[in-house]
Amino acid sequence: MHTQTNDKTAEFELELYKSLRTESSSALAAIPGLWLQKFVLVGATLGFVFAGGIKPAVASAEQLGILLVPILSILIDCRILEQTLHARFISQFIGREYQNPRVLAAWESALWNLRARSYGSIRTALSSVVTAIPTAGLLVMASTFMHHLLWGAAAGTVYIGAAVLATISLHQRSRAHAATATSDVT
Q1: Domain that holds residue 160
Q2: Is the pTM of this model over 0.85?
Q3: How many domains does the chain have?
């Protein structure tokens, strides 16, 4: 009877693992679609600007439209962050809870490598900066059309800085969490 219980537990754990990996893959697979939305938004904005645009009857409606573009880009950035964090949380759970076979925990650790100067941390930093730069550009572009280039440049710089600081903060928390989880297991 004990063997049957262990077999059922192992079967349940395997199915849970498969489900978690599928969910993680789905979260990461959504990111290219979000990037496509962002590029369409940027491309449409540039096309609109260079084609002369449609002039609304009220100047404030034009300004509102221009301001909405970087705001929509920020929302897409937030969605990209959400999908990435979701996949990362699943990966951390798998790495913490699935110690056997060791290769599962080892892969999850390698995937989001939490060492200070690892390829994983470099990849994470690059992803954050590359995601923030188009939005910063849209902030600058929107402020230029509203005759406030300095504010736009400042907002874009702050946005990129905030993305970098958020990445560093999340990375440090993940490293601390991983260290705590490792000490709990040992």
Answers
A1: 2-185
A2: no
A3: 1
- As given in the structure block, the two tokens for residue 134 are 């188009």
Q: What is the pLDDT along the chain (186 residues), one digit of tens a residue?
A: 444 557 777 777 778 888 888 888 888 888 888 878 777 877 777 677 666 655 544 556 667 677 778 888 888 888 888 888 888 888 888 888 877 777 777 777 777 765 555 666 677 778 888 888 888 888 888 787 777 778 888 888 888 888 888 877 777 776 666 566 555 544
Q: Quote the CA–CA distance of 39 and 181 in Å, as a whole number.
A: 39
Would you say 156 and 140 are in contact if contact means Cβ atoms under 8 Å apart? yes
In the chain, count H helices and then E strands.
5, 0
54-67 burial string, b = 16+ CB within 10 Å, else e?
eeeeeeeebeebbe
Residue with tokens 């999340």: 170
